[in-house]
Amino acid sequence: MKRHKKGDGAIRSMSGTISVTVEANGNSSRRSLKSGSTAGDLLDFLELLPDAYIVVRNNRPIPITQVLEGGDRIHIIKVASGG
Hints:
mainly beta; five-stranded mixed beta sheet; 1 helix; 7 strands
């Protein structure tokens, strides 16, 4: 799979996928997703429930409807709840 960099720094492949770095539970890994994937799609891909996690990009929480871009660094934080 050939990759090229767009002028904005986004990493895209020739096959319509993007690559993002995902950090969760102290682990970091690169994931390939279909172009146009949202934060919710990423949670589905990772088999995580959206009600139990916050997705953060550039130190700011983003809605699960937010479209991800190639080269994004995403932090996934488990929500703590209880009484």
